[in-house]
């Protein structure tokens, strides 16, 4: 007994990678590396900030001062660890985008949305914090003054650049050809029944 076997066809995605996809992948990696560099810079300036803050708040309650210092160190450490994780995630997403992975495209959109919200929240938090530290003698004022000159402005600039980057990545992936991210799907010929590794006619003729 023998069965007629017909070669199945497939709808394949285009082989060439769109330039928009290449740019989006590169931008993700650049943003991840820039975020890590900023986190490391924050960790590096923290000892000096702590020293200047303690000197400026010498007459304040030591418990309150220690609380501020603890928050500073925890925030710097968490930011650095998070930046390392994000770099790894962005590299994985970038490689997936370059291969044409639809899961990577969806993941990049999710990351872009969350990153946009995080950048917006950070910008608002910095602006609100700046409005509340203008009173002389307050610990918040002493802490803000302990940072290097222009540090607060740099925070806002980084947050705005981050939001712009996420928007650009999302837009680049939206305007990229969807066929590049479409996986090949085998097409079973009409009148054939799919089997494990082969196909045979549904009317099962014998020879």
Walkthrough of the structure:
The protein is mostly helical. The protein has one domain. It is built from 5 helices and 4 strands, in the order E-H-H-H-H-H-E-E-E. A two-stranded antiparallel ribbon has the order 1-2. A two-stranded antiparallel sheet has the order 3-4. A hairpin with a 4-residue loop joins strand 3 (192-194) and strand 4. Helix 1 (19-56) runs antiparallel to helix 5 (151-175) and helix 3 (102-131) runs antiparallel to helix 5. It is elongated, with a radius of gyration of 27 Å. It starts with 8 loop residues before the first strand and ends in a 6-residue tail after the last strand.
**What is the straight-line distance between the termini?**
6 Å
Q: Major β-sheet, in short? A: 2 strands, antiparallel
Total beta strand runs: 4
What is the domain total for the residues?
1
Helix content: 55-70%
- Arrangement of strands in the largest sheet: 1-2
Instruction: Name the helix and strand elements from N-terminus to C-terminus, one letter apiece.
Output: EHHHHHEEE
Weakly predicted, low-confidence segments:
1-13, 184-195, 202-207
Strand content: 5-15%
So what's the overall shape? elongated
Distinct helical segment count: 5
| Alpha-beta content class | mainly alpha
- Output the radius of gyration: 27 Å
**What would the average pLDDT be, to the nearest integer?**
80
Structural features:
single chain, 207 residues, two-stranded antiparallel ribbon, two-stranded antiparallel sheet, 6% strand, mainly alpha, disordered C terminus, elongated
């Amino acid at each position: 007994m023998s069965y007629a076997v017909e070669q199945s066809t497939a709808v394949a995605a285009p082989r060439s990678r769109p330039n928009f996809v290449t740019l989006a992948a590169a931008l993700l990696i650049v943003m991840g590396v820039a975020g890590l560099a900023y986190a490391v810079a924050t960790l590096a300036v923290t000892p000096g900030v702590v020293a200047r803050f303690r000197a400026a708040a010498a007459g304040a309650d030591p418990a309150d001062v220690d609380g501020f210092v603890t928050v500073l160190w925890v925030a710097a450490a968490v930011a650095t660890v998070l930046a390392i994780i994000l770099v790894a995630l962005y590299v994985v997403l970038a490689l997936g985008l370059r291969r044409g992975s639809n899961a990577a495209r969806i993941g990049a959109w999710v990351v872009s949305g969350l990153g946009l919200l995080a950048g917006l929240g950070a910008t608002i938090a910095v602006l609100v914090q700046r409005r509340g530290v203008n009173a002389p003698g307050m610990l918040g004022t002493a802490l803000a003054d302990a940072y290097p000159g222009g540090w607060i402005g740099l925070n806002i600039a980084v947050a705005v650049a981050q939001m712009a980057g996420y928007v650009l990545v999302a837009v680049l992936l939206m305007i990229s050809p969807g066929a590049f991210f479409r996986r090949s799907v085998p097409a079973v010929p009409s009148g054939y029944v799919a089997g494990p590794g082969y196909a045979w006619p549904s009317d099962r003729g014998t020879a």
